[in-house]
Design goal:
5-stranded mixed β-barrel, binds adenosine-5'-triphosphate, OB fold (Dihydrolipoamide Acetyltransferase, E2P), alpha+beta, single chain, elongated, 462 residues, binds manganese (II) ion, 13 helices
């Protein structure tokens, strides 16, 4: 497609300019001597109104074939529209029909479908208002994320998708193998991974963080933005088996710098989204969840609360709410607790820090109390945790001790430990699940609706 696109055409002056536009027909209305078409080309939510006079060449042959979903090219004159809703409309002079869409069979007619049904037609759902808007928002958000880090001089690092470390600890892994599944080579009942493709057990990555740290400890500030895979057996509206993650890592940076970065980052991408994707965001706000814009605006304008885990537990214990999961020091917070803090107590985002070491990953820096670690989770209203991060343990001995306490093998982490042996520096980072972010900004309930082709437990239809 060469353009001009409908997004730009709608802003043009209606001065009888000759233009050509291509797209898919959303609706058609016929009157006595002409037809109205609403044309969409995916460049924006709005359609371009097109008037086809019955005197246009070939009218009688093509007009009945211009049905919802069919694809056309229209050459015509851009004129002022008498309608209030739009400034311009196109008077067709020539119509080229590319592909018909049989109205008896094409499922995306006017009738509204459920999101469940649309998931079964993932090849067609991007042609609906909701899914085209999600696609545009995903694309724009990726761009703002890259721009934020690039403007700050972070280096984009491509961490591996296939990994030999089976010990990132973030979730269950998918194995990668070329061994014949019907006849797996074994010695004494144990699989011979030497015969496997890499000569070693290997898996799909669950996080790029550990590899990201190696580059941060050379380049200063880095970020990753790529696919991650977790063999999640739970069938929830917040978990996918394949999802995208953003993981910045910053050196000479403690937990406070980490919190500042996370807060600035979220404010930047949300501000850009509201400023530049207004039409799509207004759609989500009217059709999906009427609190999202107000919520994002408050995040942009409010200073985030910073609170220690221990204080948060006190706050929760004080509350009169009957939580499903009882509160006491040491528990991992559930989303009901996170939502209570952000929605009832503070009414804004909260960064919780200094969690008990038992409930956090081995690589988080231990505090002097020997009980808590320098974790920081960013919690937001309506969703709960959106970012999880920490200052990393930069002392080799302490890290080895933590690895052993977690029943892991220090030898598996030899290269990770060497980062602490040679030129170790305080460093920090965080992880943001891209689909959770898109869910949050669009108000979409199910994570399977914010990625083009979702993969989840027992579900891979495309
Ligand atoms: P959860 O408790 O929700 O499973 P987690 O503690 O496993 O999350 P992390 O290991 O901290 O999550 O991963 C970083 C981020 O990746 C999370 O904050 C979340 O946004 C996202 N994430 C984690 N697992 C999934 C998943 N299965 N599908 C989509 N996003 C995910
Ligand atoms: Mn998880």
């Amino acid at each position: 497609m060469k353009g001009p696109f409908i997004k730009d055409i709608l802003k043009m002056n209606p001065d009888n300019k000759e233009i050509s536009v291509c797209g898919w027909i959303r609706t058609k209305r016929d009157s006595k001597s002409f037809s109205f078409i609403e044309l969409n080309d995916g460049s924006c939510m709005s359609n371009l109104q097109i008037i086809i006079d019955s005197s246009v060449k070939g009218y009688n042959e093509f007009i009945n074939k211009l049905t919802t979903g069919s694809s056309v090219k229209i050459d015509g004159k851009l004129v002022k529209s008498p309608a209030k809703e739009q400034n311009v409309e196109l008077h067709a002079e020539n119509v080229t029909l590319y592909g018909e869409a049989d109205p008896e069979k094409y499922v995306l007619q006017k009738k509204r479908h459920t999101f469940e049904y649309l998931r079964t037609i993932a090849h067609l759902r991007p042609r609906t208002n909701t899914f085209s808007a999600i696609a545009r928002v995903r694309s724009a958000m990726s761009f703002y994320i890259h721009r934020f880090f690039q403007e700050k001089g972070f280096v984009y690092v491509h961490t591996p998708i296939i990994t030999s470390s089976d010990c990132e600890g973030a979730g269950a892994m998918f194995q990668v193998t070329t061994l014949p599944l019907e006849n797996i080579p074994k010695t004494n009942g144990k699989i011979n991974f030497e015969e496997d493709f890499f000569g070693k057990k290997s898996s799909l990555t669950v996080s790029g963080q550990l590899e990201g740290e190696t580059y941060a400890c050379a380049l200063g500030n880095i970020y990753t933005f790529g696919p991650t895979f977790r063999a999640e057996h739970s069938n929830t509206t917040r978990h996918l088996a394949e999802f995208w993650m953003i993981e910045p890592e910053m050196t000479f940076c403690d937990i406070n710098g980490n919190m500042d970065a996370a807060e600035e980052f979220l404010k930047y991408i949300f501000k850009n989204l509201l400023e530049n994707c207004r039409e799509d965001m207004d759609f989500f706000n009217t059709r999906i969840d009427n609190t999202i814009i107000a919520n994002l605006e408050s995040i942009i304008n409010e200073e985030f609360v910073r609170l220690k885990y221990t204080e948060a537990i006190k706050e929760l214990e004080k509350s009169k709410v009957a939580f499903e999961f009882p509160v006491k020091w040491g528990i991992d917070l559930q989303s009901e607790h996170e939502k209570y803090l952000t929605e009832q107590v503070f009414k804004k985002p909260v960064i919780l820090t200094d969690y008990p070491k038992e409930i956090k990953a081995f690589y988080m820096k231990l505090n002097e109390d020997d009980k808590t670690v320098r974790a920081m989770d960013v919690l937001v209203p309506r969703l709960g945790e959106i970012i999880g991060g920490s200052e990393r343990e930069d002392n080799e001995q302490k890290l080895v001790k933590r690895i052993k306490q977690m029943n892991l093998n220090p030898e598996d982490y030899w290269w990770y430990l060497e980062l602490r042996r040679y030129g170790s520096v305080p460093h920090s980072g965080f992880g943001l699940g891209f689909e959770r972010l898109i869910q949050f900004v669009t108000g979409m309930q199910n994570i399977r609706d914010v990625i083009p082709f979702p993969r989840a437990f027992k579900s891979i239809d495309f």
